[in-house]
Amino acid sequence: MKPENFCHLMQALSRLQYRDEKLIAMLQKTALTWPTVPHKILVKAANSAAKLDLATQLWCKPLAIALCQAVCENTLIVKEFMNIKWITAVEMFDDATMINYLYRAEAVKREQLSDLRYSRHLQVVELYVRLCKEEAVWQQLNDNVKEFLRDLRKDDESVEEERERLKEEKRLAREKRRKEVNKYRKRLKKYGEEARPLAVKKTKTERLPMSCPFHREVSELLSAAGLQLMNGLKAGPFNLDMFHGPTNTVIEVCPEWQFYANTTHLTSRSRVRHMLIRKMGFNLALVSAWTHSRRCDRRIGRSCG
Question: What is the CATH code for 213-298?
Answer without folding.
Answer: 3.40.960.10
